[in-house]
Structures are given as C-alpha cells and as structure tokens.
Amino acid sequence: MKTKNILFGTLITTSVLLAQSGEELFNTYCSSCHTTIVGINESGGEVTNVYEAPYAKDLIKKLKSETKTKEKFITFVKDYINKPDKRKSLYGKKAIKDFGLMPSLKGVMSDDESAKLAEYLYSDYGKEVQKTKIDVVSSEKSKPLSKPELLFNNYCSSCHTTVVGINESGGEVTNIYEAPYAKDVINKLKSETKTKEKFVSFVKDYINKPDKRKSLYGKKAIKDFGLMPSLKGVMSDSEATELANYLYHKYDK
Description:
253 residues, mainly alpha, Cytochrome Bc1 Complex, Chain D, domain 2, two-stranded antiparallel ribbon, two-stranded antiparallel sheet, 14 helices, 7% strand
C-alpha cells in the first residue's frame, strides 16, 4: 500500500511539473509563426513587419470582434487549432494564399491544454508585454539621456541603427540600414585607427568633411549608401569630441 501511495504521488508530481501554462503553450506551438518577424514590407510608403502567419495581437482582436463573447472565442480557438479549415478562416482566401492553412494541432494538446491556451489568448496575451513597456518608459524617464547620447540619437541613429529592411540572400536573414550599422563601423574604425586618440580625430574630421576617399568601406559602400551629409556647423568642436568619445565606448562590453 505504501509503495502504491508513493507511485501515485510521483505521478501527480510529474504531471504537475510537466503541465504547461497558457503562455508556455503559446510559445511552444504558436509564437514562431504568429509573432516572429521574418521580413519587412515597405510598400505603400509604410514599413510593416512580415510574419509567417497573421500577427497574434491582430488575430486575437479580430476574433474577439467576430465571436462577441469569451465562450464563443474559446470554442472557436479549440475547434480551429484541431481542425483548421479555409472556410473558417477569419481573413479569407487571400490569407490562405499568402500564408497557407495552419497545420492541425490535433493530438498535440489535450482538451484541457487547448482550453488553457484559448483562455490565455483571450484574457492574458499581451499583458506582460505592456507591463514591460511601461517599466521601460518609466526607467527611461528616471534616467535622462546624456548629451552625447542625444547627439547620437539626433544626428546618427536614424541612418546607422534604424532597420529599414531585411536581406534574405544567401540563406541568412540580415538587417538593412540606411548606412553601415553603427556597431560594425565603430569596430572597424577601432581596428583601423588602433588608438582612441586617432579614433576621435577621424570621427571629428569625417563628420565635418565626409569624403569617399576616407570611407572605411570603399566604393561599394558609397554606391550602396551614398556619401553621408556633412555635419559641419551643426555641432560645436566640443560636442563633436563628446560624440566621438561616446562612440568609442558605445559598444564596450
């Protein structure tokens, strides 16, 4: 009898340990298609993310609008993930053509797990993300940017750190920027100049008098990105020095 109790207790403990939350189920079976960015769409003059399937937040919002009640929302999700059908699709034929029909999850989750996933999608999806964003904003407010950071954000970041597209050639997905990526430029310049003094001197000279003959990346970079605009007169000499010093240490570990 004692042995049976121990075995029964072990089975209960194991099932509890193996039980996944709604969020964990979503991350395991849904997120790779419904939240992972696989590209950028720049048509129509607006940059939007591209996913393997309709974006989770938009999908949930649309389904709530269609089903009206939580009960119907959960019923739809449980039915659709087990028996996906193009006739049930919220987005119609175009979505099926663009994304294909989602694979069935029948047999992958128990009825309880699919109910838990649907409950999470209806009640909790996005809440943790929103909380994180609020924390980040309040953290930024309590810690103002330094002057060199402001100079970088105002005059450098839009070209050297903002992603404007995705390059998928060669089987590898890489970001595309308006100009060479800041971290790469800094590392290359450090390698070329050897000392901080020469690094700072180069930056100050180049941002005031950009010249294709001084380019670290040669003619191809000038052809791909163009020559950067001069910042002469935009910053004082001391500001240019502060910016250059900031860049030197920006990506230090």
